[in-house]
Amino acid sequence: MELKLLLFLMPLWIFSHPLMLLDMAAGNFGVPVVVNGLYYGRATGMAPRARIAVYKAIYPSIGTLSDVLAAIDQAVLDGVDILTLSIGPDEPPEGTLTFLSLFEIFMLAAHKAGTFVVQAAGNQGPSPYSVISYSPWAVGVAACDIDRTYPATLILGNGLKIGGVGLSGPTFGGGLIQYKLVLAKDAVKKNSTFPRIFNADECQYPEAFDPLVVQDSVVICTFSAGFYNGNSSLMGIIHTANLLRFKAFVFVANPSYGDFIAEPIPFATPGIMIPTTIDTQNILQYYERVTVRDKNGFVVRYGGRAAISEGRIASYKGRAPIVSRFSSRGPDYIDQSKNPTDVLKPDILAPGHQIWAAWSPMSVLNPILSGHNFALLSGTSMATPHIAGVAALIKQYNPSWTPSMVASAMSTTATTYDNLGDPIMAHGFDLYTLYTSAPFGFGAGLVNPSHALDPGLIFSAGYEDYISFLCSLPNIDTAIVKSATGGVCGELFVNPSDLNLPSITITSLNGSRLVRRTVMNVGSKAETYVSAVLAPKGVMVDIQPSWFKIAPQETQHLHITLNVTQPLDEFTFGEIVLTGSLDHVVKMPLSIFPNVI
Fold first, then answer.
1. Residue 14 or residue 363, greater confidence
2. How many CB atoms lie within 10 A of CB 546?
3. What does the alpha-carbon distance between residue 557 and residue 402 come to, in Å, rounded to a whole number?
4. Is the pTM of this model over 0.85?
5. How far apart are CA 56 and CA 68, in angstroms?
6. pLDDT-wise least confident of 143-147, 194-198, 399-403
7. Neighbouring C-alpha atoms within 13 Å toward the C-beta of 23
8. Band of residue 15 on the pLDDT scale cut at 50, 70, 90
9. Which ranges of 135-268 does DSSP label H, i.e. alpha helix?
10. Least confident of 21-25, 140-144, 447-451, 521-525
11. Any long-range contacts for 228-237 (C-beta under 8 Å, 24+ apart)?
């Protein structure tokens, strides 16, 4: 079966790049990744044999909704199988429900035509209610960290080794030869006004420094007001370092501004980022202890020495996956006031932090990567093409499956545990700290491609089901639904939560609610399933039938009753697990707000 994937260029609210999307979703097998002359390994797309269709709808300087909608429409007419959108609105639509914006309606039309739609969840985490993938007919993808890191080390003259971030080679000597250590503000020309006016400690202005002091030195540059305001950049540091022939630079956190987030970027000049204030204090304590100053505070002898180790060798240690800090969080919401709705968002988790992929050397929006054919970037726009590629593999293996069947297969087979056997963790507001995540962070969990090919049971929903869902929303005007979608409100659900999704989300459980689901056996043999429930706190869950035998292509209706046992003032989470006699395990996340008994 020949598959076609649609990939968009230059998203509105997520920094991404078209070549990266192409490469991750359907890039060739075993492509060598070489940056600044160093071989980092080989990269392979998720579905290397898939064919790619690209519709250029957005440019670096401008992007309009009408162009995006036209591209979606044309792609559907061209018969693409999978529509991957690292793109979305800046904010919820005004004057209408999130589900009924033009963007969402065009995705619904694509789904109706048989196109699997996958969309980035957004990069506005870790705040709740920050997802910008709203609708149940589009798969919203969250991003996670993986276990690959590129550690670098700053080696001080007293033997202290401080870990940092920096995708660069070592100083000459591979860390064995040490060089003069200079704090940038100490190297400013005499009688210069740069420290006061231009924050010379940020190393943005070469003319501020005495070249005889900084040449062949390891120079400490500091995160300050310019970086905080977005006026200063690493490119500025690198430009200064190259022009004045630094041996290396060290970019450190500033106690006045706290820790910062450091992402590895290929530096042609040896460099390292030290993003925590504790490490900065250790560096500066050493520096001041061995630096001699006159009575006016000017340095008369630089006694500090330092070197930087190799920072381009990958390390595969530690916990993974971890929900990335930037990855947008649920719950999903229905309007601009962010009233929650009975749909789980994000839907699924995929790698999206520090991902290698192809890159245009023009690099219009990111000059620091200019001239490179590959880049290492982060965002939910990196995670989204992973899911697109997995969907292509599932579709090829099961060509008759509908988009909702493909989505269900990924959801019910996803894992909620990390490589250490613990529940998936997440980055929070406090930098470099973790907490236990939940479905509003990772959806159903981390995608498991091999298991998704053979899920056992699937939950299926079609266009008419989505129309019934829209018509069942509280206080909905059915005329608006008809005007927006062209669909007619027929048989309504008792509650919107009756939409046949592979999850159950109830934003206000008052007393008791009966939720209906239907599963279909997509396996080749009859199988007996037994249900088990990990009930959310404050909720009792009963599923009937508690066990059932189901033949191939047969369906089974499930009645799930949820009762409040303890009202809470927050969402609580659990899951239903259906375990099959042929080793299929089907999981369905529960996200419930128990309101009143």
1. 363
2. 11
3. 19
4. yes
5. 9
6. 194-198
7. 24
8. very low
9. 194-197, 211-214, 225-229, 234-244
10. 21-25
11. 228/257, 232/199, 232/202, 232/204, 233/204, 233/368, 234/265, 234/368, 235/367, 235/368, 236/202, 236/203, 236/204, 236/205, 237/202, 237/203, 237/204, 237/271
Tokens coding 20: 């990266």
Which three-class secondary structure state does DSSP give residue 147? coil
- Helix and strand element counts for the chain (H, E): 14, 35
Looking at the DSSP bridge assignments, the partners of residue 231 are none
The owner of tokens 């008759």 is 400
The region that residue 538 occupies, defined by phi over 0 for left and psi between -120 and 50 for alpha, beta otherwise, is: left
Q: What percent of the chain has pLDDT over 70?
A: 94
Which of these, 272, 53, 49, 37, lies nearest to 150 by C-alpha position?
272
CB-count burial class (<10 Å; 0-12, 13-18, 19+) for 96 = middle
The DSSP line for 232-288 is --HHHHHHHHHHHT-SEEEEE-BTTTB-------EESS-EEEE--HHHHHHHHHHHH
Q: What is the mean pLDDT of residues 192-212?
A: 79
Instruction: Identify the CA nearest to 412 among candidates 284, 248, 576, 558.
Output: 576
Give dist(CA 586, CA 532) in Å, integer.
Answer: 10
d(CA 587, CA 596): 27
**Between the CA of residue 158 and those of 220, 246, 280, 290, 304, what are the distances in Å?**
17, 21, 15, 10, 9
The answer to whether the Cα torsion of 17, 394, 123, 40 is positive or negative is negative
DSSP letter for 566, please: S
Q: How far is CA 529 from CA 229, 312, 546, 555, in A?
A: 57, 49, 8, 13
Cβ within 8 Å of residue 159, ≥6 positions away: none
pLDDT > 90? residue 360:
no
- Rounded distance, CA 408 to CA 469, Å? 17
Side by side, which strands form the sheet with 547-550?
504-510, 585-596, 572-580, 527-534, 547-550
Q: What is the dihedral of CA 154, 156, 159, 160, to 10 degrees?
A: -60
Strand, coil or helix: 148: strand
Contact 73, 106 (CB under 8 A): yes
- Which of 289, 286, 341 is CA-nearest to residue 160? 286
Ordered DSSP codes for 357-411: EE--TT-TT-GGGTT-SEEEE-SHHHHHHHHHHHHHHHHHHSTT--HHHHHHHHH
Distances (CA, A) of 295 to 17, 241, 292, 300, 487: 54, 30, 10, 10, 82
Q: Distance (Å, rounded) from C-alpha 218 to C-alpha 190?
A: 20
Q: Where are the beta strands (DSSP E) in 452-526?
A: 457-459, 504-510, 512-521
Cα distance between residue 61 and residue 10, in whole Å: 10
Hey, what amino acid is at 357?
A
95: CB partners within 8 A, 6+ apart: none
Identify whether the C-beta of residue 186 lies closer than 8 Å to the C-beta of residue 218. Answer: no
**CB proximity list for 187: less than 8 A, separation 6 or greater:** 209, 210, 213, 214, 217, 219
CA separation for the pair 228, 31 (Å, rounded): 38
Length of the chain: 597
Q: Give the H or E element holding residue 21.
A: helix 18-26
Closest-CA residue to 26 (of 3, 59, 56, 9): 3
Kindly list the distances between the CA atom of residue 331 and the CA atoms of 29, 47, 340, 444, in Å, as whole numbers in the listed order.
37, 31, 6, 13
